[in-house]
Amino acid sequence: MKLLIIDLPGHDAKINLGLEDDLLHLKDGYYGIRFWMNSAAVILGKFQKHEFEINQEFLQNKSIPFFYRNTGGGTVYHDEGNLNISFIKSGTNPLPGHENAKVSTLITELICDTIRQNDADFVVSKRNAIYFQDKKLLGSAVSMTQGKFLYHASLLVNSKLENLQNCINWNPQYPADSKKLVKSERDPVINLAEIYPVTIDNIKVKLVENAKILLKPKKTIFISDPEHLEFYLN
Fold first, then answer.
1. Potential cystine with 143: which of 51, 71, 77, 103 (Cβ 3.0-4.6 Å)?
2. Strand locations in 41-121 (E)
3. How far apart are CA 96 and CA 9, in angstroms?
4. CB atoms near residue 210 (< 10 Å)
5. Distance between CA atoms of 107 and 88, rounded to whole angstroms?
C-alpha cells in the first residue's frame, strides 16, 4: 500500500466538501490522508435538519453559509483555526497489524497521540471524539460508500469559539416524529492552543510521521495540486 498526503489550497467549504466526494474514487492500493480548512461555515450531518440545528439569524447577519456533508454525525462549525483531517481507504484493505480493529478508533487514537503533549489529559470517547478535562476539541464522522471507508474529523486548534457558540443551537428541538433524524449532542469545547502553544502546520507534520508508523506504506506521496490528485482517482 502507498500513502497519499493530500493538502490542497483553498478554504471554500462547498469545494472542499465536493473533494471529499471525489476521494470516494481513490484507487485501490492507496491510503489517503487529507488536511483541509474552511472559511467560516457550518457543516451538518446528512441525517440532520438545519431548521433545528443552526441559528439562522446569526448566520445570515454574519454571512456564514451552511452545508450538508455525506456522512452522519452532528453539526460542527468550521473556520481557518480548525483543522479537518480525512482518512480514506478501500473497505477491503485492513490496516497492517490491526486486521480485527475498528479503523475509526485507530485513526482517532492516532490523532490523539499526535496532539498529546506534556502529559495532557486527553481522552478518546466511544463516539470517536477527543476531550480534554471534559471539553471537546475533536469530533468525527464516518461512511462506507462505493466500497470506500471515509473518516473525517474536525480539530479545534485556534478557532473562533464565540462564533461556534452563536452559530449552532445548543439544544436542538426536533419534532417527536423525526426518529430517523440525528440530533446533535453538544459538549463544552476548547481549542488545542488553549492547552499548549501549537500551530496547524506542526500538527500536520507530526501526524504524517505517526501515520507512517501505523500504516507502514511502501511509499508516501504528497499532493498539493488538484490536477495531480486526479491521477490517483478512478
1. 71
2. 41-44, 66-68, 76-78, 82-90
3. 31
4. 13
5. 11
